[in-house]
C-alpha cells in the first residue's frame, strides 16, 4: 500500500512540475512554439529583415539539435508596419498558433497596439525591437523586455555630444510623428531644458509621406548646424541625400534603427553619407579591425550558410542574429521550466552576458528593475567605406 501511495505521489509531482509540457502553452516534449511580428513589407520593410536574420539563426539552433532537447518552432508574420494588422497577427499567434511567448516583435506602432492585448492574455513579449521609453516602465509592462537602447537614452547621448562639439549652434531635428520619433525629440527637450526652444528647430513627417524633401529644405533655412534624424531607414536615407543635394553642410546624426549601411547609407549614397554619426552596440562587418575577430568570423560563416546572397552591409541582419543569440541564452537558462513565469524571470536574469558581435565593453544585464537588454552605446562616424568608432562606451545611467 505504501508503495502504491509513493507511486501516486511521484506521478502527481511529475504532472505538476514545469517539465510536464502539456501544462504550458506552446510547449511539448520536443518543441517550443514562439511568435513574432515584423514589417516584412510596407514603409519599414528595410528593418523588417531583422526578422529574417532571427529566423535564420533559429534554424541554425535547430540544426545543432535545439535547446535542452527541444526544437524552436518560430512563427513570424508580416504586419506591414500597420498597427491594426499587428493586432490581427498577434491574436492569430496567441489564439490559433498557441505560442508560448512573443519574441523580437519589431516596430513601435505595432508593439504599442498589441501590448495591452498580450498583457491581458498573460503572454510575455521578450526583446521587443523598440526603444520607446514607455516600454521600460516595468509596472505597466511587467511581461516585457526591450531589445534596443531606449530612444530616450540614445537621444540624450546625441544632445550631450552636440552641446559639447557645437555649443553655440542651433540643432535641427527631423522626427517620425509617432512614439519612435517623439522620444528622441523629448530627449532633447529634457536634456536642453529651458534652452530647447532657442536651440532646436523641429519638423515631423508621417510614414505615409512619399518624401521629406520639403522638411529638409525648411530645416536648412533655419540656419541649424546639425541635423538629427529620428525615424526609419527609408526616410533617413532621403534626408541624408536631400541635405547633400541642397548643400547643407550640417553635422548629421541618425538614430540606431537607421544605422544600416545597406538599408540607409547605400540608398542615400555612400559618398553623400560621409561624416554621418550614429550610436551603436555592434562591431561593423566592413571594418577591417574586426576581420580576425572570432565573433564576426562566426557571423560571416552564418551568413554564408543560412542567408547566402543577402546584402551583408544591411546591419538589420546582424540585429536579428544577435536577437537569436539572446533567445538561445534565455531558453538555456530556463532549463526544463518553460512556464511563462520562468521565461520572463530568465529574460530579466541576464548577467554580464556578452554577445560576440557587440563592441568591447558592452554587456547585457537585466533584472527585475531593469528590463532593457541594451543600455550602452558607442558613437561611430561613416568615412565612406566603414564606420569608425570614437569616444568611450556610454551608459544609460551616465548620459
- Looking across the biggest beta sheet, what order are the strands in? 2-1-3-4-5
The percent of residues in helical segments reads 40-55%
What is the CATH topology descriptor of the largest domain?
Rossmann fold
Q: What amount of the residues lies in strands? A: 15-25%
Low-confidence stretches: 1-22
| Largest sheet features | 5 strands, parallel
> What top-tier CATH class of the largest domain fits best?
Alpha Beta
Q: What gross morphology would you assign?
A: globular
Oligomer: single chain
Q: For the residues shown, what is the average pLDDT?
A: 92
CATH architectural arrangement of the largest domain: 3-Layer(aba) Sandwich
Protein model, in words:
The chain is 41% helix and 17% strand. It has 399 residues and is α/β, with parallel strands linked by helices. The chain folds into 2 domains: 8-149 and 296-368, 3-Layer(aba) Sandwich (Rossmann fold), CATH 3.40.50.2300; 152-280 and 379-395, Rossmann fold (3-Layer(aba) Sandwich). A 5-stranded parallel sheet has the order 2-1-3-4-5, sandwiched between helices. A 4-stranded parallel sheet has the order 7-6-8-9, with helices on both faces. The chain has a 3-stranded antiparallel sheet with strand order 10-11-12, with helices on one face. Helix 4 (108-120) links the parallel strand 3 and strand 4. Helix 5 packs across helix 6 (179-192). The radius of gyration is 22 Å and the shape is globular. Mean pLDDT is 92; it is low at 1-22.
